[in-house]
Each structure stands twice: as C-alpha cells, then as structure tokens.
Amino acid sequence: MTKLYGILKEKKGSSFPLVVAITLALGIILCGISEYMRLMIIASGVRDAVQSAIISTVNDNYDDVYHGVREGYAGGYKPSGSSWEGSIDYGDIYEYLDNTLGLQKNGGYHVKYAGEAVEFKLSGLSVDITNVPLAPSDSDSAQGLLADAVFRLEVPVSFGGKSLPPMRMNLKVQAKYMPLF
Predict the structure, then answer these.
(1) What φ, ψ does residue 84 adopt, rounded to 5°?
(2) Within a domain: 3
(3) CB under 8 Å to 105, separation ≥6 — which residues?
C-alpha cells in the first residue's frame, strides 16, 4: 500500500497511467452496480404491479364470498338449488397489467417499450385460485381464498453491449382474500 502511495506521490508523471486505470475500473464498477440496481427496480416494480392485479382479481370475487362469510369463512360459493357450487372469477390480469404498466402485446409477450427499445417483457402468466372447502370442520385452520400467480420476466441488460444475455426470472406472487367483518 505504501508502494502504491509512493507511485501516486511521484512528480515525474509515471503515475498517470495508473490513475487512469483506477478511474476506468471504478467507472466500470459503478456502471455495473447501477445496471444491477436498474434490473432490481424493474423486477420489483413489475412484481408489485402483478401483485396488485392479483389482489384486484381476488377482490373481484367478493360478490361470491358473501355466503361463505356468513358461515365464518371466506370461499367463493353461490347457492345452486338446494346445494352450493363453487364460483370464482379469474378476471383478465393481462388487461389490468397492460393498462397499469402500459404494455403492448407482441407475439407471446406483453412488452414495455422505452422509446424504440424494449424495457422488459412479461410472459407465461399462470394464475391458480384455490377456493376454501365448503363448510370446513375448523374454519380457523382453513386457508382463505388464495390466488397464486407465476410469470416470467425478461429484462434486456444494457451493460456490456450485446455480450450479456437478458435477465430472465420466474416470479411468484400470492394474494389471499380475508373477510374483515
């Protein structure tokens, strides 16, 4: 360390290439960190938007859970003659996301553009809604009306030119309907 400090303190100018190399290395490291932060911010924002869409879908089932709430649990059922039948609305989550995030359909993807460039792509959205069993023996241990969503996010990496592949990740989001009253 003292040798490096001695090189930097020389007045002959021999430390100039070392200072340039250190500056470039720090610049590259800062660019890498900022790109990593950009990717994480996009992934977090998209995950939050999908979670909002799933919560909206679960809340859209409120009209069918009224009967279950009267029995002490929340399930999507409606009367059918002298019995009950399951009634769950899946909604249109992609449409909600398209309107919220400004996505455009392109092939099998829902794409967000930043000008001409692709900012990120969504695909493979799968939603599984689990209804509560009708009249469970223990309503406290029964899971509520659950919605699990899995989707694939692809974000092009803008660091290192085209030498780095895009970030691809599968994200999972869950929402649950809980009656408050």
Answers:
(1) -120, 150
(2) no
(3) 98, 111
- Flag whether 4 is in a domain: no
Q: Which of 72, 51, 58 is nearest to 133 (CA)?
A: 72
- Helices 93-101 and 16-59, interaxial angle, to 10°? 140
Contact 176, 145 (CB under 8 A): yes
Residue with token string 């500056």: 23
Task: Note whether residue 1 is domain-resident.
Answer: no
Q: What pLDDT, on the 0 to 100 scale, is given for residue 70?
A: 57
Does residue 63 lie within any of the structural domains?
A: yes
pLDDT digits (tens, 9 = 90+) for 74-89: 667 777 888 877 777 7
**Cβ(111)–Cβ(101) below 8 Å:** no
Whether the Cβ atoms of residue 86 and residue 115 lie closer than 8 Å to each other? no
- DSSP-derived 3-state class of residue 152: strand
* pLDDT for the residue 105: 92
User: What's the total number of domains in the chain?
Assistant: 1
Domain that holds residue 106: 15-177
- Encode 76-99: b = buried (16+ Cβ within 10 Å), e = exposed: bbeeeeeebeebbeebebeebbbe
